[in-house]
Amino acid sequence: MSQADQVPASAPEAAAAAVLEALNATDSNGTEAINATGKFVATPEGTALAYGSLVFMALLPIFFGAIRSVSCSKSKELGENDYDSGYRNASDMPETITGRDAARFPIIASCTLFGLYLFFKVFSQEYINLLLSVYFFGLGVLALSHTMSPLMSRIFPASFPNKQYQLLFTQGSGESKEEIVNYEFDTKNLVCLLISTVVGVWYLLKKHWIANNLFGLAFALNGVELLHLNNVSTGCILLGGLFVYDVFWVFGTNVMVTVAKSFEAPIKLVFPQDLLEKGLGASNFAMLGLGDIVIPGIFIALLLRFDVSLKKNSRTYFYSSFFAYIFGLGLTIFVMHTFKHAQPALLYLVPACVGFPVIVALFKGELTEMFRYEEAPPEEAGPKEESSESEKKDQ
């Protein structure tokens, strides 16, 4: 997270896991406040409004993404074809992160970050950002459309003529026929796609900070919803590794600073500190990288699913980790504002989000049960039920 950044005015599931790597790898934790005329000094009111808005926006995808991840988990248990709640396509099913994935993630993220740094050093920044804009335009439209879909289902009246469609692309014929693309959608999905495309064109043409935030919120919510940690131990490994990653690349080198200042893509939430003076045309932004939202967010979502598995009608671990996130983010802002130096947000978020729930579990005597909680990968859910039914028939 950084104090401010000048965003230029011109210029996740085939990709769910890959997008998250990009989000965290390009986390803008080290950008300094600069504008065309020199150092920008925000007013106390503008600073308070900007950081308060960033905190509020960060909480939205974590809270709603965690709730929606519970529905994803249910669809995973029932099987992709048996659950009728909008998760009709393989791209809508959650990706499970295992311990091995978590251990490799900081290395992959570091390679991605350093690769981007070299790209910006060797090639023209203008052409790289043009390619990135087109790439994130496609991802953003799909992510925003998926985010809006449940809301549209509630808004549209029951009398709305909602026709069903299927996009099917196969290879071969007869018994050797193989499905390449099998995507089901309806009229409501098309409306969501149209609205998302309008936002995408707005972002491409204007790079406006509101369009950036709409895409950023959609990316973050989809990441929290669709990226599932298989257990608490995996979450600790992932957060611990990225804790070291964030601290090293912010304090140890200028790589993250350079990439964050050069990277034009909706991989951060921004809010103008000069909004009160310049209105919607403001240009000096406080910012928060999406990696600082998604990484703790998927751990908080895991704890909500653990709460649900206890069947006690209690959300103790979810709320303890959620308020721990608020505390950690507030502490990040306080330290940064006090010492006038960019801070890696995960330095404060990881100990808070992991430590608070562990302390609660110790007091409740459920620490062992917490670390034993395990989620099966989605591909294992359906076959297990089928095999058990066939075994019963054989018996």
The portion of residues forming beta strands comes to 5-15%
What is the count of DSSP helices, taking H or I runs of 4+ residues?
14
Would you identify the regions where 5 or more consecutive residues have pLDDT less than 50?
A: 2-38, 80-86, 379-395
Tell me the helix content. Answer: 55-70%
- Gyration radius (Cα, Å) is 22 Å
Q: How many DSSP E strands?
A: 7
The main pleated sheet reads as: 3 strands, antiparallel
Strand order of the largest sheet: 1-7-6
In whole angstroms, the N-to-C terminal distance is 60 Å
* Rounded mean pLDDT score: 80
Q: Tell me, what's the shape?
A: globular
Structural class call reads mainly alpha
Elements, N to C (H/E): EHHEHHEEHHEHHEHEHHHHH
